[in-house]
Amino acid sequence: MAAAKPADTSPAPGIQLYVHFPFCRSKCAYCALYSRTGDTESFRKEYSRAAASAIERAGFVPETVYFGGGTPAVSFPEIAAAPLAEMDISEFSMEINPSDFTPSLPDRLLACGVDRVSVGVQSFDDTVLSSMGRTHTAAQAEDAVRALRAAGFSNIGMDLIAGWPGMPRDAWRLTVEKAIALSPGHCSVYSLIRERGTPLDIRLSNAGARPDPGEALDRVAEAGAMLGKAGYERYEVSNWAKPGFKCRHNASVWDGADYLGIGAGAFSRMGGMRWRTAPDPEAFVKAVSRGAEPPRTEEESPDALEDAVSREIFALRTSAGLDVANAVRRRPVLKCVEGKWRDCLEYAVSRGLLAKTSSGAFAPTPRGFEVVDSILAGLV
Ligand code: SF4
Hints:
The chain folds into 2 domains: about 15-255, Alpha-Beta Barrel (TIM Barrel), CATH 3.20.20.70; about 305-380, Arc Repressor Mutant, subunit A. The chain contains 15 helices and 14 strands. The protein has helices spanning about 40-60, 75-80, 105-110, 125-130, 140-150, 170-180, 200-205, 215-230, 250-255, 280-290, 305-310, 325-330, 340-350, 365-370, 370-375; strands spanning about 15-20, 65-70, 90-95, 115-120, 155-160, 185-190, 235, 240, 260, 265-270, 275, 295-300, 355, 360-365. Strand 10 and strand 11 form a beta hairpin. Helix 1 (about 40-60) packs across helix 10 (about 280-290). The longest helix has 18 residues, at about 40-60. The protein is globular. Mean pLDDT is about 95; it is low at about 1-10. Iron/sulfur cluster binds near residues 24 and 27.
């Protein structure tokens, strides 16, 4: 079913849409994202129909769309995507777990408008993949990337995890080399975070192992050097892209845009409000089918200053950097923190953590990328 294109119904330009599909075949050892296992096909279909209804009800044309999870590919994404079919969307991304790849998947995704795929590779080492609890092999990930490209996807991203405990340095280099050889437009390299209560956390606790964030940062730096040599630009702490392949959805969110999150556990920032849809798929389906708003948790309406700060500071995590004068022009309420921000940022420049760009923005140096969150903490 394709809804008619809404005519000029967008409440404001530049709203990003995220749809969360919280269903996985099994839980990965490191994952603390909201998702669950064991749902029936019929419930996953019902959930996708509810997501489609919620998209229709939202009543605007999003600038970008991102289907994430969980694993959207096992959740009938074409059902949820139907209302978007006639809309003029600048980028439509979907996450893919190589375990869920089937020969028909690329054509199904192309048919529903997906034009960018982000493949959760994580590692090209089968021993590491098994220890992570991933249910695919390195060869399956490679085959999925090749098949997606052969089917017509030119905008392909890959996710890797740096700093897996016990992963030999040579194996990490081989993983990055393999990723580069497959030539995705985009590569995300996430520093492993030991999230409390995950199987990884329990495993490390039982072994009396201490987290070593330095190890993960070293591996990220190593990957960054290799990606840089291969023509990728680091445009955010964890993200590298070839020219023309930055993720527009995430870039817009970091630039302070509004985003609407649809689905159980999804986060939203719209106007002066922030909220999380309750991580309860049954409640989401039930509410939407009654024509009601799904229940929310963590709802807040920050004051104008807090809202402006939260929308502007994430520029500091990007290579474009934080342009203080521009931020104040966009959001005059920031005038009262301008002096404090400049002092804090100039101090970071004096420590070699930030550098001024040609346009006068403060952007992280390679060392600064490693500690950018502590610089951010000084701005709030
Ligand atoms: S497939 Fe993705 S969302 Fe699901 S458990 Fe693994 S990392 Fe988490």
